[in-house]
Amino acid sequence: MVFRMVCFLHGLDSTMGHSMHSYHGDIFTMKKNGPKIRGKFNTMGNQFPWSAMMFHAPWDPPCFFGTGQQHPLGAGRPYFTDTAATAPRTMVMGPQQHPLGAGPGEPRRVAVIGAGAAGLCAARHLSAAGVPCTVFEQTGHVGGTWVYNERVGLDQFGLPVHSSMYRNLRINIPKHVMCYPDFPFKKGGRSYATHQEIRDYLKNYAQHFDLHQFVQHYSHVKRVAPQGSRWSVVVEDLKSGRVTEEVFDAVLVCNGHYSVPYTPTVPNMSLYGGVSMHSHDYREPSRFAGADVVVLGANASGLDIAVEVAKVANTVYLSHNKDPVPSRLPDNVRQVKGIKEATEDGFLLLDGSTVRADAVIFATGYEFSFPFLAPECGVRVVNNRVVPLYKHMLHRERPTMALIGIPYCVVPFVIFHYQIRYFLSLFLGRVPLPPREQMEREEEEDLQKHLLKFPARHTHKMADLQWPYLRELAAAGSFEDDMWPVVQEVYDAVEDDRKHQLLVYRSIEYNVTGRDSYERVLPSTSSTPAAPAGLMTKQQPPQQHLHHHQQPLQIK
Ligand SMILES: Cc1cc2nc3c(=O)[nH]c(=O)nc-3n(C[C@H](O)[C@H](O)[C@H](O)COP(=O)(O)OP(=O)(O)OC[C@H]3O[C@@H](n4cnc5c(N)ncnc54)[C@H](O)[C@@H]3O)c2cc1C
Ligand SMILES: NC(=O)c1ccc[n+]([C@@H]2O[C@H](COP(=O)([O-])OP(=O)(O)OC[C@H]3O[C@@H](n4cnc5c(N)ncnc54)[C@H](OP(=O)(O)O)[C@@H]3O)[C@@H](O)[C@H]2O)c1
């Protein structure tokens, strides 16, 4: 007789986001005529009654909301890939699957490079699927760029400081849509959280999914190279200086892409006598008090830093080559053209005008950088495009390597959550790898799609393309497309806020009220005719909802 054991978990919601969770529910076996209750359980955290969970039959994939698999490191401990508050509280114990072609021998191991949001997400899903992994992290923390560091330049081990956070940074996507789909933020608090809150959230994620056991700290990956069909990973223990080599079956590169500054070549820069820095090294504005400052680049960093520096500076020249920023800006911020060349005391701009400046901040973005990938890995960066990548992530020539988080202009944590699961589906043989010609063809089609929208150096830029991209990954990986539609809706609304109300958009609250609904709460001090203070729900008449942005909110 074939029957399944199904657990209905009733107790998760009150404890989501915490390390301890209680489980209580019913143990069922599925019979032809429906479920039959075989017993009850009620327990806390690690005391889940694993021994009661016996598989009675070969299990046929796929499961409904997750798979319960033997944890190879934890002595027969089944794991639930719970989908948290985003799915019904129903878990189905699923099959123990073996990677395609591999028998039930020694499990294949995965190296994860970096314990930022991407690396943690990798550990969460790999461990849930019972795949042994080691996460190599060069710092003593998890959270990557969200671990604010006052220090600039080199860290205590002589490595470049990784984080690009500045002291007063607040997120630019409301936290309830920025989060991983399977790990919502706790209720309450401001939508536009501080970097410290995101760091705490990531710490909670690591704790909740018991990920610390996989992270090897102060482990700087120095070199990754192919070794037959596997990968040699050379790691330096930064505390002892000891260098070791381990061999893995797959590598997930999660080293972050906003750490190595891109600084354009400015002719005559050596003549310039003022202060010059990259936004990567910007922490707070006090050193610019009373100064005339050029901020080059008007994306997220440039806009944020220009506004903050303007609070203390004499004049800020926001220098860029885009259309003028349509939002109101502080009175002492002037938008000017991009830089043509430097002079001794300032800059000649592309329209022939000049500005005198005591300092320039290059908010000109970052470079993809994989210094530890040996040339034999075959990964190259050509005009800001990482090749050869299938679906912006999978090493097409050596598909046991994936580079996570390459796309930008996205909701990063959501992208990680999908990319990792796609990799896992391939790695476990749940879905076949497409033939090489098909991957090449799809990659070319995708490139052309991007080139229609963006310049050649932005072929990993996503914006609107991120939504079909996520759906494609879910379909290709045959896993649940668990991002709520409201994420896209809020993302679009917020993009509009940011564009038109740069100075005040972070005081607007976004509360997710369902899969497809949200409330947008304006600050009570605002007083604009088109945007009355108070709550606006998505269901309100279109005129009111759609036109709220047309009048800038008052600056406090
Ligand atoms: C200033 C700034 C603001 C941002 N604001 C937002 C925002 O509001 N919302 C949002 O969603 N995203 C934001 N982002 C994007 C942010 O980068 C992503 O949200 C996400 O944190 C990236 O995670 P990651 O794991 O890919 O990289 P990271 O967080 O950079 O983590 C990479 C990790 O890899 C480690 N590492 C690197 N090289 C090695 C090595 N050789 N050996 C061992 N370990 C290594 C690093 O120490 C680090 O811990 C912002 C980024 C920046 C720079
Ligand atoms: N939470 C927050 O508020 C916050 C704050 C800062 C950063 N971030 C995040 O951090 C990441 C990096 O953002 P970023 O703004 O640092 O980098 P970015 O998005 O890469 O933006 C860099 C900008 O500089 C411009 N630029 C480059 N060279 C230039 C030149 N020579 N002259 C004029 N302009 C030039 C680029 O123009 P082109 O587009 O034409 O190349 C681009 O607009 C993003 O994910 C962002 O969302 C978030």
From TrEMBL:
Enzyme Commission code: 1.-.-.-
Keyword Transcription: no
Domain of life: Eukaryota
Coiled coil: none
GO MF annotations, alphabetized: flavin adenine dinucleotide binding; N,N-dimethylaniline monooxygenase activity; NADP binding
Cofactor(s) required, per the database record: FAD
Transmembrane segments: none
Protein keywords: FAD, Flavoprotein, Monooxygenase, NADP, Oxidoreductase
Chain positions covered by the region annotation Disordered: 519-556
Matches recorded under InterPro entries: FAD/NAD-bd_sf, Flavin_mOase, Flavin_mOase-like, FMO-like
PANTHER family: DIMETHYLANILINE MONOOXYGENASE
Family as reported in the entry's similarity comment: Belongs to the FMO family.
Name of the protein in its database record: Flavin-containing monooxygenase
Source organism per UniProt: Frankliniella fusca
